[in-house]
Amino acid sequence: MKYIEILREGERVNEVYLCKHRQSAVTKNGKAYENLILQDKTGTLDAKIWEPDSQGIDDFERFDYISVTGDVTSFQGALQLNVKRVRKAQPGEYEPGDYLPVSSRDVDEMYGELKDIISSVETPCLKMLLSKFFLEDKEFEKRFKFHSAAKTVHHGFVGGLLEHTLGVTKLCEAFCRQYPMLNRDLLLSAAMFHDIGKLEELSVFPENDYTDDGQLLGHIVMGTEWVGEKIREIPEFPKKLASELKHCILAHHGELEYGSPKKPALMEAVALSFADNVDAKMETLKEAFASIPEGNTEWLGYNRLLESNIRKTSR
Amino acid sequence: MKYIEILREGERVNEVYLCKHRQSAVTKNGKAYENLILQDKTGTLDAKIWEPDSQGIDDFERFDYISVTGDVTSFQGALQLNVKRVRKAQPGEYEPGDYLPVSSRDVDEMYGELKDIISSVETPCLKMLLSKFFLEDKEFEKRFKFHSAAKTVHHGFVGGLLEHTLGVTKLCEAFCRQYPMLNRDLLLSAAMFHDIGKLEELSVFPENDYTDDGQLLGHIVMGTEWVGEKIREIPEFPKKLASELKHCILAHHGELEYGSPKKPALMEAVALSFADNVDAKMETLKEAFASIPEGNTEWLGYNRLLESNIRKTSR
Amino acid sequence: MKYIEILREGERVNEVYLCKHRQSAVTKNGKAYENLILQDKTGTLDAKIWEPDSQGIDDFERFDYISVTGDVTSFQGALQLNVKRVRKAQPGEYEPGDYLPVSSRDVDEMYGELKDIISSVETPCLKMLLSKFFLEDKEFEKRFKFHSAAKTVHHGFVGGLLEHTLGVTKLCEAFCRQYPMLNRDLLLSAAMFHDIGKLEELSVFPENDYTDDGQLLGHIVMGTEWVGEKIREIPEFPKKLASELKHCILAHHGELEYGSPKKPALMEAVALSFADNVDAKMETLKEAFASIPEGNTEWLGYNRLLESNIRKTSR
Amino acid sequence: MKYIEILREGERVNEVYLCKHRQSAVTKNGKAYENLILQDKTGTLDAKIWEPDSQGIDDFERFDYISVTGDVTSFQGALQLNVKRVRKAQPGEYEPGDYLPVSSRDVDEMYGELKDIISSVETPCLKMLLSKFFLEDKEFEKRFKFHSAAKTVHHGFVGGLLEHTLGVTKLCEAFCRQYPMLNRDLLLSAAMFHDIGKLEELSVFPENDYTDDGQLLGHIVMGTEWVGEKIREIPEFPKKLASELKHCILAHHGELEYGSPKKPALMEAVALSFADNVDAKMETLKEAFASIPEGNTEWLGYNRLLESNIRKTSR
Amino acid sequence: MKYIEILREGERVNEVYLCKHRQSAVTKNGKAYENLILQDKTGTLDAKIWEPDSQGIDDFERFDYISVTGDVTSFQGALQLNVKRVRKAQPGEYEPGDYLPVSSRDVDEMYGELKDIISSVETPCLKMLLSKFFLEDKEFEKRFKFHSAAKTVHHGFVGGLLEHTLGVTKLCEAFCRQYPMLNRDLLLSAAMFHDIGKLEELSVFPENDYTDDGQLLGHIVMGTEWVGEKIREIPEFPKKLASELKHCILAHHGELEYGSPKKPALMEAVALSFADNVDAKMETLKEAFASIPEGNTEWLGYNRLLESNIRKTSR
Amino acid sequence: MKYIEILREGERVNEVYLCKHRQSAVTKNGKAYENLILQDKTGTLDAKIWEPDSQGIDDFERFDYISVTGDVTSFQGALQLNVKRVRKAQPGEYEPGDYLPVSSRDVDEMYGELKDIISSVETPCLKMLLSKFFLEDKEFEKRFKFHSAAKTVHHGFVGGLLEHTLGVTKLCEAFCRQYPMLNRDLLLSAAMFHDIGKLEELSVFPENDYTDDGQLLGHIVMGTEWVGEKIREIPEFPKKLASELKHCILAHHGELEYGSPKKPALMEAVALSFADNVDAKMETLKEAFASIPEGNTEWLGYNRLLESNIRKTSR
Asked: Is F261 in CB contact (< 8 Å) with chain E?
């Protein structure tokens, strides 16, 4: 397959892409045309259908996989596809996995690591609770492996929710080794549950956008409520432990102004909010620096999450 | 009964009070004594047992109703009771209702008003949900009538939760009359549910203090989760309406930094957050001015909730 | 008359509009043309004179009513008028009331409601003061009925100042019913005066922009000073009441950072600042949702006044 | 006269002081006594009347000048006067000027400097306006010379308002020399008027506390309104200049959150707000360091106005 | 020479300019062209090379002085140069001083004033330290005279660092005259050193942009460290005085959030931070008003440094 | 030795303690007495000398080790020592290590761990720089082992600076394992240097208070400058690496308002600021919970560093 990131000006393209966006428009001269955004897992590409009524331009819709024929041109420094022919592709003509940004790590391997950590949890009721989600519920597992952790910022790719959850959990393990006063089982459980509400907050790929519930309620409250529901199915779950676990999830954004309705009040809640923040910032920088060659120390300008100008370190 | 607010220096007292606080201490000369705080519904009174080992000083504990004999003295401008005899009072010697601050309005009358509003709600599933709490659950009704709405600030008295809930609901009714675009049934339901989480956030009188769950989870999240649970018992409850109702409860503090995990995004959520704020501030001023005689326009100093110096208006 | 909001692509137009904006420009090819913004009470429309030197293009200026002939085209999703002929319209060819955004309510009816409220004020000196502005000064009445309450945000239309003032005053009436401790006469008077400074802060339509004094002094201080001047004409006006009334006006934005030089310190000042805020936010949402069909629950994105993403409630 | 600042433990005192504060109290043993605060221009002194009913203790009230006889003792590191005899002093027994904190500079000399600056103002209408206040109104002059500029912070002494006004005006003169684009007449006039509202905001000595109007309206608005009134008596005063002058007064606190309803928008308003701030901070430090010996570089702890720990500079 | 600020539409130009920016682009039709920004000391000009491959278009690079032939056109209200011929200019064809924005004051005269102030410093070790930088180090003097004080805001021109430093120092002199408690030698030394770190923070003209060290360390810390190094070469320099001087430099931005790691704690540090702020704001306004004719009181919109809408004062 | 933490009411004590504080005072009856605070490594104890002029009360000063004889009493819930005899202790009568709060870990062992990490650094110039401080400079090692990391908050004990530095460095190691993009040598070096400025910011025990330089310059700038000085002794140290290392130190507080003059702009600077924050907060909680028995889940009230009420987790 010819991926978007390797296209060059002047090429003729004949390939299936995912149509992420479609909008009709009119040129200054009053001629109708179509604006498209095409996507595969390596990036996105602007495309124009200058003659939408010509032969060879068939019907299709946003989020269809489409087979396009056209020429790569360059406009104001960016590549653009001048579409000559387009039609909806048939299942079998394409491999869905090629069209979405994906984690650079293998999702099954990562899920395996998560399972290993679950098996190291000793408190029976916590282990039971984790099993209800991560081990016994196959539908949950499937969704959890496929979901992103964000719409646009860090971990906004297939497997992103899993990769971030694993990263946070492993940081928490490191914290437990260094600060033995931490309740390891509570902290690791909270880490694995902290973002499960994102399964409801963001729609699945290829849309990957905020849901109505996501905007109204948010992943913090939805995740807490979900965990609360499952806990009620475990009669022997201690009430105090349940509240502590839910507190850790509620407080994981660390500050009221970041959407946590409570500030971290337990040592584990403090640790979890740090782990979440560290993994988010490290991944943000990793993604920002991904395409910068080693040794390039140019400044990249202002990064909103870091609230600072940033650059790659010399080495 | 001889209420605390009418005691005068020099009186001998022989009465039953609630013991709100008890602590042992030592004078500069090394003599042990006891610090008490006595309470009835009109206020509190410092009391000292200077001779804790003398005859007539029987055993009792914090939150007991105690029969005390002693003399009212004055120390640094405040009254103090010098306790000579004390013993635990027997049920029948006192009327619990005399010992807690209570709403100036009749709780049954207020609850009746709330029921009238419920009967005016037309949307069946909302009416059904309201009934499950306010009409069918007698234990809920009893708790709801007795609870306060706060530990120390406005509405911190028996019936306070009911009085505040009714006040907010009636403001919302007024808003609906003025802004017909508001969904009346949604707004009134949200108003009646907005603070039910306080039943779990604050312990019952006479303690009336934050519970463990109150500190870890807060009334906003607990109330939302509680409403969510009951909604699941009504299969035909529309999912979107459920999320909108829960959003109104979540967002009723209006700002993230006041503990709402979401800002109001619906017209009804905006209206509810204003109604809550208006009723809280009006009651705060009412309580602050309660003991100020008509026509007295002395400044009362800084009020933390209002974030301003305040005074009563001339009239 | 053919209103802007009902124009469709492809139509030929022959109508009088208000010219809100006019600017000369040059195409990429170096050809001069004219950018216009046309306005009537239903909205605005971009227009282009591609041949400014051709016959049929007469002289006119910004804020003139102009008779235009041209074709409606569509450019980048928005309509545009391609002007073929244009000339200044003669008085009699148009009805000024058709060209400005206006309140959906009848201004005389609203003014009548305001007068009714004034007649319910019992304190003689306040009633006298209100009369001096709203009843006796016909020039004031005329300006007050025609003015907007804002340049761009809520109530930015003819009659907007009146509609907002009436809305705030009626909310204050509702507050008085619920909180009898409020001094009704003081609060309602303050409500009716709270924004009269906007008559000086904003220029009249069609300009409706900040005046020099508006920027230098602001409506809060100008309104307070104006009321102060008139009070000096009423010798028996109690000094304390005068200061309380002026305080309510000064403090009606509620917070120093919103331009009030004092925080509300009186119960009536607190109530007024809430009423102003409630009416502003409700109207903002009403205007934002005005063109959204019933049942459409799409998210409208970030609203600056609400500081939140917003959407219409399902119903 | 024996000033408070030179009293030493063990002395017998027989002197007239101003009674700034008086309150009845009761010892732990139940004995009534009186707490006084005595004042002269060098400071204040706690005093106790342990035997308020004894012979020699006559009637007097707060703000009376009282003749006291007593012994200087030391309690917890501070001096205290044990009062044996006290009576109201007769006019003639004391010199009021000895009992209030006063400017270290001669008020007539400072007022002369202010007059010299007024005579250098060239714009006729501004000169006329300044004359109406500072030259022609002898009652104004008398009040202006006697008033303080603050209740507790910098310039809280007799002559303080004049000293601060002169300091600010002279800084503005220096700014004019360095930045010729500044309109000297406007800036110096605004400087001289900027705090005249304090004549109404603070009561006169010895009380020197916020007035009711001071709390409700504040010196910024009252001063602006006062200047506005006088301007209306000068028909030829240009409207734009009037607004600019009033803007400078309104904006002199520099930030909305410091009580200015407008941010400085003119070069002169910016300059005035800096001059006010510089003079306030320099005087605050001067007063804080006044009693610190040369060469002592001990840290004085946190200063609220400077928002920093401070110390005197080594030299 | 034909300066950019006097070019008019329709002119043919044949002149040498500095090429500040160069970028290749493609028209909508797919044709390659070049975007340039040309600069001389009077301003900048957009230029286009529509036929980059035609004869007469020679090689050149960003920051080259280039000889261009072309026609001045107007596009969307701004002038644009349509370049027909271009080549790298030879040294001798141009005078570098004509191509950079420069101080309106003579740099040697300003430097002379600075030297006069140095000669008035009496404390030997401070005088010695000043000499090491400003008198003995000719390379430093040359750089100091040529540097700007900012990338884009106030004093962003050749000589700007010197002009700002002199302005701040003279304000400090005025403060010393008015507040004799200030240590004049310490304050004036700190004023002269306060921005020397900008020599490292910003690259030299024509680039005048943040350096890598500027972004990583900042001029405040670099300047402090530089002064610290030189102080170590003066063995008799008192340690306390050294720390006080360095504190004044560190604290000169006045607030932690403006990048000072310490708040001003000494009277001189407070004075310096004010002088820096006053000079910056006055110069900002001077530059903003530079091209506004006398008497024009149009509002200029929001100014980011002043955080307010601004306008020129009427006169 | 009889440590303070095991003293009980009623005991007679005959022991050497460090005198941390001494102040003369007067009882209400006018009798002079002495307030002392005694200290050993287990805590502090209030002590009173009621008869300072009696035999057996010898001369001594603050920070002396004193041999005291007295009785343990209890006053208002706290123990107090009633001192009968006191004299300065002789060297040999006490072991200084017994009188200061100390790290619970062995300082030599921790220092050994730090050396092991240094030996794992591969970049020669960084290793050389680390050696100059931690390996070659024995005086530095001695001071570094003895110093605290704070006056009052976390790690305020002998060895605290070392324990905190080691904790931060080990967290950074964990971050490097999880995020391989981090430059390990740079990050670990920055971690070990990040707080060395505290050697100058805080005086040594037993005083352990802010120094004059600490208040004027702060540990962030002093540490950066110190590292900069040593780097200049290593000619081959790359300039860019030097700036990156210094940037990490400068930015380690993470936010301008916490005293860092630059926000973290490099991945290592971000990681270091998190590691510092995590270790500080974990230690704060550890110290807060140190004396709370396992299983006690009482709320401890508001913790200023955490900005939340806190409690120990149930287990």
From this structure: yes
ipTM value: 0.87
Q: CB F157: neighbour CB atoms within 10 A?
A: 21
Helix (H, G, I), strand (E, B) or coil at D44: strand
Residue B29 pLDDT class (50, 70, 90 cuts): low
For residues B218 and D79, give the distance between their C-alpha atoms in angstroms, rounded to a whole number: 51
Closest CA to A270 of A282, A255, A254, A281: A254
pLDDT band at A28; cut points 50, 70, 90: low
Strands D12-26 and D65-75: antiparallel
Tell me if F76 and B25 make a contact (CB, 8 A cut-off). Answer: yes
Q: Return the closest-CA partner of residue B11 out of B89, B77, B52, B69.
A: B69
The larger pLDDT score, comparing residue F244 to residue C24, is at: F244
- Which amino acid type is present at position C311? R
F258 has a pLDDT exceeding 80? yes
Residue C117 in tokens:
């409220």
Transcribe E37-53 into DSSP letters: EEEETTEEEEEEES-TT
- Which residues in chain D are closer than 8 Å to C218, comparing Cβ atoms? 261-262
Tokens of B273: 């957050």
Does residue C162 surpass a pLDDT of 70? yes
Cis omega (within 30 of 0) for bond into D293: no
Instruction: Compute the Cα dihedral for A67, A70, A76, A77 and give only its sign.
Output: positive
Q: Which pLDDT score, from 0 to 100, does residue C285 have?
A: 96
Which residue among B76, B297, B309 places its CB closest to the CB of D25?
Answer: B76
Residues of D in contact with E297 (CB under 8 A): 240
Q: D74 — contact with chain F (CB < 8 Å)?
A: yes
Chains D and E lie in contact, requiring 3 or more CB pairs less than 8 Å apart? yes
Q: Provide the 3-class DSSP secondary structure of residue A31.
A: coil
Q: Are strands D78-88 and D308-311 parallel, antiparallel or unpaired?
A: unpaired
Residue E13, C-beta contacts closer than 8 angstroms, at least 6 positions apart = E2, E7, E68, E69, E70, E71, E72, E81
Q: Is the peptide bond before C124 cis (omega within 30 degrees of 0)?
A: no
Mutation target vs B (from A221, A222, A241, A253; most B CBs, 10 A cutoff): A221
Mean pLDDT of chain E: 93
The chains found to touch B (3+ Cβ pairs under 8 angstroms) are: A, C, D, F
Q: Does D218 touch chain C (CB under 8 A)?
A: yes
Gap between the Cα atoms of B154 and A163, Å rounded: 47
Which letter, b or e, does each residue of C117-152 get, where b requires 16 or more Cβ atoms within 10 Å of its Cβ? bbeebebebbbbbbebbbbeeeeebeebbbbbbbee
Q: Which helix (H) or strand (E) segment is D141 a member of?
A: helix D138-146
Asked if chain B contacts chain A via 3 or more Cβ pairs within 8 Å, the reply is: yes
pLDDT, tens only, A131-170 = 999 999 999 999 999 999 988 767 888 899 999 999 999 9
Of C25, C30, C212, the CB nearest to E77: C25
Confidence class for position B157, pLDDT limits 50, 70, 90 = confident
